[in-house]
From TrEMBL:
All copies of domain CobQ/CobB/MinD/ParA nucleotide binding, residue ranges: 10-220
Annotated CDD domains: ParAB_family
Gene3D superfamilies per the UniProt record, alphabetical: P-loop containing nucleotide triphosphate hydrolases
Tree of life domain: Bacteria
Identification of the protein by name: ParA family protein
PANTHER family assigned: P-LOOP CONTAINING NUCLEOSIDE TRIPHOSPHATE HYDROLASE, PARA FAMILY PROTEIN CT_582
Length: 255
């Protein structure tokens, strides 16, 4: 692992709420930090929800209340000898400067900085923050409102920010989320064709629909899926094909 490279700035971003951007930020950050050995930091600029900050508070409480998860977290710490990644709250309009300051003063080399950004371009500083990303990943679902909002947003990024503004963006990647494996709807074919016609990039991997994305660990749980402290269980990842998504994600960002 080459830690001499400049850290990558990555955002799961969308103009439509409820499509999973905060969830994917936590899932991918935890996989990279705890399982794959990279050093990660997350900046939570999604005011006023601050979903990831609140998630970490719940995760800490859950681990302390669940003896199995407490042992799992302890064994993880002993095995990898590293602390939980930090989640830093900050405003979107100056988050790039704060991230650079964090990297320069960090006692450990940072490999990836994830940004959980607000879900509207009307937020002050959001376009500047997006222009500072190296890679943007946008979850989509086969829903007309989601697709219309997403395609307009993605074209804005490609046609305005990448062409008319000084930018760090290398890739913008759409990916299917909440795909029902039992149902083959013509909507996917229609939207795939439209995405191709617009010249947008669509990932090959599709993340299957799962209640796990909306459900955090319970008091008596012995497995973890969505957590800021422990990586998602590998069997659960495979069940919804998140493992395939992670493989393609790493190939795209070339970490």
């Amino acid at each position: 692992m080459n830690t001499k490279k400049k850290p990558l700035f990555i955002a799961f971003s969308s103009q439509k709420g409820g499509v999973g951007k905060s969830t994917f930020t936590a899932l991918v950050a935890s996989t990279l930090h705890y399982r794959l050995g990279y050093n990660v930091v997350v900046f939570d600029t999604d005011f006023p929800q601050h979903s990831l900050t609140k998630m970490k508070v719940r995760d800490l409480a859950m681990v302390m209340e669940n003896e199995h998860l407490k042992k799992l977290a302890y064994n993880q710490f002993m095995a990898i000898n590293k602390k939980a990644y930090e989640i830093v709250q900050h405003k979107a309009d100056s988050v790039l400067e704060r991230a650079i300051e964090y990297i320069n003063t960090s006692a450990i080399p940072i490999d990836v900085v994830f940004f959980d950004l607000p879900g509207t371009v009307n937020t002050p500083g959001i376009l500047k923050a997006l222009a500072g990303m190296h890679h943007i990943f946008t979850p989509i679902t086969a829903d007309r409102l989601v697709m219309e909002s997403t395609l307009i947003f993605t074209q804005l990024l490609q046609d305005v920010i990448m062409k008319k503004v000084e930018t760090s963006i290398k890739t913008i990647n759409l990916f299917w989320n909440e795909v029902d494996g039992r149902e083959r709807t013509p909507l996917y074919d229609v939207y795939n064709q439209l995405i191709a016609q617009l010249g947008l990039s669509l990932m090959q991997s599709q993340v299957k629909n799962s209640t796990r994305f909306r459900k955090e660990s319970e008091n008596d749980s012995k497995t973890i899926f969505r957590s800021t402290l422990i990586p998602p269980d590998e069997r659960l990842m495979k069940a919804c094909q998140l493992d395939l998504f992670i493989t393609e994600f790493l190939k795209i960002i070339q970490l």
